[in-house]
Amino acid sequence: MAVQISPSEAVERNYAQALELNLVERHGTLIGGDELRRLLCYPTVEAFRQAVRRGTAPVPIFPLKHRRGHYAIAKDIALWLTECRERAFQRSGRIDI
């Protein structure tokens, strides 16, 4: 039996997929450094470090063995940004996504 999804869910999925492809083309599948900080909307390096330290970042962030810094997966970032966008539409009362 096929699972039915609403038109708005289909649009959201397509948007998230397009955003993910764009992120992968621009930054690669694994995103780290200043690009990660900016994509997650942290205004400063220290704000980002504090979120990582506290475990309050909006997506899973992790270190890699023998590498400096922390990283996240482009798909996780795309999904988070899409969720933020959807909440903004819901708050504004707009139905179309």
Task: Please tell me about this protein's structure.
With about 100 residues, the chain is mainly α. The chain has one domain (about 10-90). About 60% of the residues lie in helices and about 10% in strands. It contains four helices and three strands, in the order H-E-H-H-E-E-H. The protein has a three-stranded antiparallel beta sheet with strand order 1-3-2. Strand 2 (about 60-65) and strand 3 (about 70-75) form a beta hairpin. The two termini are about 25 Å apart. The model has no long low-confidence stretch (mean pLDDT about 90).
Strand portion: 5-15%
How many beta strands in the DSSP annotation?
Answer: 3
Major sheet characteristics = 3 strands, antiparallel
Whole-number count of domains: 1
Q: Helical content, roughly? A: 55-70%
Radius of gyration from CA coordinates: 15 Å
**Overall pLDDT confidence:** 89
Uncertain residue segments = none
Class by SSE composition: mainly alpha
Distance between the termini: 27 Å
Give the SSE string.
HEHHEEH
Tally of helical runs? 4
Strand line-up in the sheet with most strands: 1-3-2
Q: Per the principal axes of the C-alpha atoms, what is the gross shape?
A: globular
Question: Which helices and strands appear, and what pairs or packs with what?
Answer:
Elements: H1 7-27, E1 30-32, H2 33-39, H3 45-54, E2 62-63, E3 70-73, H4 74-92
Antiparallel strand pairs: 1-3, 2-3
Helix pairs in contact: 1-4
